[in-house]
Amino acid sequence: MPKRADIRSVLVIGSGPIVIGQACEFDYSGTQACRVLRDEGIRVVLVNSNPATIMTDPEFADATYVEPITPEVVEAIIAKERPDAVLATLGGQTALNCAMALHERGVLERYNAPLIGANVDAIRLGEDREAFKGVVARCGAESARSVVAHTMDECLAAAQTLGYPLVVRPSFTMGGLGSGFAYDEPDLRRIAGAGLQASPTTEVLLEESILGWKEYELEVMRDHADNVVVVCSIENLDPMGVHTGDSITVAPALTLTDREYQRLRDIGIAVIREVGVDTGGCNIQFAVNPVDGRVIVIEMNPRVSRSSALASKATGFPIAKIAARMAIGYTLDEVPNDITEQTPASFEPTLDYVVVKVPRFAFEKFPQADPTLTTTMKSVGEAMSIGRSFTEALQKALRSMERSGSSFHWLPTSQTAQEALTQSRRPTDGRIVSVQQALRLGATVEQVHEATGIDPWFLDQIERINAIAAELTSAPQLGPAQLRLAKRHGFSDAQLAQLRGMPEAVVRGVRHALGIRPVYKTVDTCAAEFAARTPYHYSSYDEETEVSPREKPAVLILGSGPNRIGQGVEFDYSCVHASFALRDAGYDTVMVNCNPETVSTDYDTSSRLYFEPLTLEDVLEVYYAECQAGPVAGVIVQLGGQTPLGLAAALKSEGLPVVGTSPEAIHLAEDRGAFGHVLAKAHLPAPQHGTAFSIDEALDVAHRIGYPVLVRPSYVLGGRGMVIVYDDASLRTYVEKATDASPEHPILVDRFLDDAIEIDIDALFDGEELYVGGIMEHIEEAGIHSGDSACTLPPATLGAFELARVREATRKLAEGIGVRGLMNVQFALAQDVLYVLEANPRASRTVPFVAKATGVPLAKAAARVMMGASIASLRAEGLLPATGDGGVMPAHAPMSVKEAVLPFARFRTQEGTVVDSLLGPEMRSTGEVMGIDADFGVAFAKSQLAAYGGLPTEGAVFVSMANRDKRAMIFPVKRLVDLGFRIYATTGTAEVLRRHGIEAEAVRKITERAEGASTEGMTSSIVELIAARRVQMVVNSPSGALSRSDGYAIRTATTGADLPIITTVQQLGAAVIGIEALRGGPLRVTSLQDHARDLDLYGRGTARS
Amino acid sequence: MVARGPAALVLEDGRIFTGSSYGMVGETFGEAVFATGMTGYQETLTDPSYHRQVVVMTAPHIGNTGWNREDDESARIWVSGFVVRDPALRPSSWRATGSLEDELVRQGVVGVCEIDTRALTRHLRDRGAMRVGLFSGPAATAGPEALVERVRRSPQMAGSALAAEVSTTSAYVVPAVGERRYVVAALDLGIKAMTPALMAQRGIEVHVLPATATFADIVAVQPDGVFFSNGPGDPATADREVGVLREVLAAGIPFFGICFGNQLLGRALGFGTYKLTYGHRGINQPVLDKATGKVEVTAHNHGFAVDAPRTGDAATDFGTARVSHICLNDDVVEGLELRDASGAVRAFSVQYHPEAAAGPHDASYLFDRFVDLLAQSCAVPS
User: Which helix (H) or strand (E) holds A377?
Assistant: First the structure.
């Protein structure tokens, strides 16, 4: 059946900011959907608050709304754009939830814009646990058995039928209070007894335990003619009990016979039909009892998901792209398979390789958080690898983590097998290495299986890796046979170097001398049954390579690897743009990356894709293979963040043509001493600072420049290990920890500037001309990591004089360093002195935000400059504006606010409380949103709405300010009272407010109660007030060591209650302006295309008069 | 780890892959074909249609779930050789009773492992199925020219009549599950166990007859319908069976055929058959049912196909025939149906495997269709 004729315009709902559990896989799926729909001649209207995405680039939709994804705002967009249909199945749970809310408000019906893909009933059946159990039963399959009990006798009877262990879940308690595992009757009596008491309805749910069962997922596609295919099966190496997003997973499933696999397939297909997903992708999860094969259906998602992005990359079958085609009426057999071009999409991909995905965690950013892996997802990113065997793929995936200790090792250890076995019992980040160590130290496969539940087949493969390592260690010399064997099983040169006690370069030299190099195979959906037209490659130590010769000069673009805090989708954005721009300019682009969630690893993005780890060895081999294929014009390392930048010097010394800013210039910017000379030559001041290699040196520096000081290891991204310290003791503690973190590099100690305005600039330099992409003013004062602080573009309070100084200083730095391409500089303006905090000669996190706020494709221009184009020529060809730049915005320019999104609510301490939400110099946000509107207030309010649900417009506010902030708080708090808010405050803050005629009700701190202070007339403590949500917003600036515990309790309670929290006085000012703006009437929506037209930086005469 | 000696895979066009011995040490010859299923090696190995073929598995890990007592499609392994990239060391399945490699050794199947199976597959895809020899142990020590020469002297697949070699020698009955509703005579040309099992589940008593059965033998079981199974070999050599089938059709007995049975129906109706370059062997093949417009994902294992017009009706000696199913990958004929003068279907067949095993169950409705055909036929007094 051909495309539906009644759909001429579609609203695509995106997924909003990157958060844990919902990351850039939805940029990948959304971008695909937008491309497909536009190819089909459909007008695409897009809403997504996340500026860092490719999908929100103005060229991917006809009308792009970077606006909060709330029912009110989306309704305004629907009212304005009047789409014929709404597609919400490609934007994660956010889009699905928004679609359901729109339905419940009658919006979809009122504007006659029905959902396509999954309908309302299907979404509900997928979400409602009880209803879904019915679906499963009607499909002849099983859900986990459960019984509701109201008395202990009923509990005991239930245990008879369900068997131990049992999960006990009291009904209607907060946050799963009173839940637990009962392994025997005494356990059950204890847990269920307490549970019955805790439950307001004296009710507990008893459920059979499926902990430790094998876990599988199927990715299923359906079209409206009821054709169904299973795109991919995924097996979790970590058994049930660890969230699939936190598990190491493998595709295809490797430990099922055909009978068992077909049973899962039959159930999966029956469920998608029964749920009634009209068209599109679905994901269904199963647990399989390893003892008898009993199958339990866990859940299904009637939308594309993280797993479907993984499945798309793992198979070459682009689920989101095809789902979009299905949504507008095509059937699977009408859509060609992109990769073969000859065969249709109505088939099931078959793999002749193994795919392994490993999650990337960020527990080092949240030291208080409990790192045990549970059914709540905690990872922030993932890497995928492809190999011709499980061992090869697993070892590649582990080294893709780019984290010391993530790969298997055979170093001397004092650990015993028993210790390693005990360690591997608890699922944590890196458990796989404990498993490998346990096996290496003599534990049997049976013992490790008993301890971890990991299938013996996988353990056996790890044991095989250990056996090969042992063979290599004991071999008299590293001969070709051993080398080949090791490489076939995924050993890196670095691992071989470790095993043989020789430098990695020597191993590589020997290997190359023996002619042992990887070949590159193709992901082709069909195990070579048909010829592949798409050069999507992976390395393997096998016989025949499939890289074809080419004529055009190629540019290698190194991506950014697994997402992590500090290195996320923003860098992928720049890599993708470089690829687009350079393809347009006549190059073949070759992308190297290992992150399956991204647009850069879509086989459509670049001329060629190598799905490979971003280590020196792997990049050198890709380069070698491409040199065999044709001319290579350059290697781009500046766009993927610190990962490729860290390889720059080594790549250059191996003779690779690193383009753009040279590795020597990068060193000038990153080495504190060298950078000091650049600054001195340019007569630019920096905060006083020093470099220390030891504790004593660090103390000397601190005494010389005075506290507070900002300390950090050199060469880091995302402020890793960066803190502000106020005294010798904390400096000592820090240096001890930090030197551990980064042994090769010294510690930097900087004077910390209190009360400074922080300014960020993204600029492009070609050696002659400086093009300022944009200048951003931070809302928080200096000291909060730039990735975590909100900022505005154009700068909200800076004048022309300051902007000119920023531009001039940036130009001097660009010249002094020798930048060719992008540079980001951070300044601090304090007492009218413009200090240079740091300069990074690479794409920054703010490049996509700047591009969206100014309507200029900065990353594209950067890629061209790196390949030798001048800014003047880019102006002439119209890629950049003919005159002027983003540094001088016209007076009518809209205000764009970038706000960070933080994951605090996701993490719990071992005791079960939320971790602290205080911002600092170490970056901890996972994503960002953008609010854009005519003035700052509305733009800020939109950013808050998009980031966490928004500022209150009425109610009560709790205020507790540090002494240094008390003066500055008077006016904003007064304004809140004028707007009708009630104020609660701590005693000290309340007193100051009262002296200024502001009524504030004093509430007791926790410490006041503990110390028995007079708390007469104060009925509740702050924490109780917050937990009961009797306040709508919390303002708390940290006030030093004294009431740290209070501050912590207040912030965690606020995070727990999901209320807005403001921790700086600058944020408070912005919030008050935002609240006023919100009270000014409903939010208006404007597309980026309209903003750009009104702004008219290109001088096309479209500006608003 | 298993100690493995060197082994060679030698193709008749002279290409040689060196790997390690796998299964029985020795030598074997056959037609090299690749199978793309990621599951179901046990079913594949025991499928009689693979008789005299050396099967190359494209999935890299084989043997993970070991060998069990339930999944055999016949009483023995039929492939003449087995080629895998990475054999499992330890089987892991609650149903496993032993390892795959032990079973290969027990049944004397020579294999080769640790070769670039993808390179081999691409070679076969580009140049077509061809003869191959696997050599391990002392057999592998001969020079390459000698090995190639030996491969070139081994028998060809085209022109081979093999059904009799794999068929049962004596008739047997698979009783209906529950009430017996119909009796079917099934000619075993290499039948897979799942086929009579699925018929039996639908109330059919299946009389499995040797490939040498005559029309008289068929009539003797007083069948409501006749079934011709899958099987190895070139359909052009099966004139005797085609003759029997023509008698069945002339007698107006309802007919259902699978795979080889489909090719024989084609020939009985006057169509030709031909050898595909490299065949269809996998469990992911999209087939269009032309009557409903629906696509089913199906199990395939065929090196030959029927040459019939893709559209329109063709007049035959027994009524009007048309192509009912086609493979969407390459437009190969995947099913035929024969209608009588009243327009009612009298006989049908498919080139692929609705019995699956291994493979998806999408096409199992064809067994229901057969039951419907039997029901209609029984309702009409003959």
Answer: none
Q: Which residues is B130 bridged to in the sheet? A: B32
Residue B158 lies in a domain: no
Distance CA A855, CA B55 (A): 58
pTM of the prediction? Answer: 0.94
The answer to whether residue B355 is catalytic is yes
Helix, strand or coil, per DSSP, at residue B136: strand
Contacts of B342 by beta carbon, 8 Å cutoff, 6+ apart:
none
ipTM: 0.97
- Helix, strand, coil percent values for chain A (each to nearest 5): 40, 20, 40
Q: What is the largest CA-CA distance in chain B?
A: 69
Distance CA A286, CA A603 (A): 29
Within a domain: residue B62?
A: yes
pLDDT at A844 over 70: yes
Q: How far apart are CA B156 and CA A664, in angstroms?
A: 66
Instruction: Indicate if the pLDDT at residue B346 is higher than 70.
Output: yes
Tokens of B48: 């009689």
CATH number for position B246: 3.40.50.880
- The amino acid occupying position B311 is T
Q: Express each pLDDT in A631-651 by its tens digit.
A: 999 999 999 999 999 999 999
Does some domain include residue B1?
Answer: no
Token pair in block for residue A244: 């699939």
Range of the structural domain that residue B30 is part of: 6-152
Tens of pLDDT, residue by residue over A658-714, are 999 999 999 999 887 899 999 999 999 999 888 888 888 889 999 999 888 888 876
| Chain A residues within an 8 Å CB radius of B34 | 527-529
Q: Which three-class secondary structure state does DSSP give residue A460?
A: helix
Q: How many domains does chain B contain in total?
A: 2
Q: In this predicted structure, what is the pLDDT of residue A739? A: 58
Which residues of B are less than 8 Å from A347 in CB distance?
A: 284-286, 297, 328-329
pLDDT at residue A1010 in the model? 45
Task: Give the C-alpha separation, A188 to B76, whole Å.
Answer: 52
Interface probe for A, chosen from B9, B44, B65 (most Cβ of A below 10 Å), is B65
Only one residue has tokens 């390693």, namely A420
Cβ-Cβ contacts under 8 Å, A293 against chain B: 94-95
**Run of H or E residues at B365:** helix B365-379
Banded pLDDT at A1041 (limits 50, 70, 90):
very low
Query: Can you tell me the distance from the alpha carbon of A915 to that of A681, in angstroms, rounded to the nearest whole number?
Result: 45
The structure tokens listed for B358 are 């291994």
Least confidently predicted of A557-561, A723-727, A996-1000, B76-80: A723-727
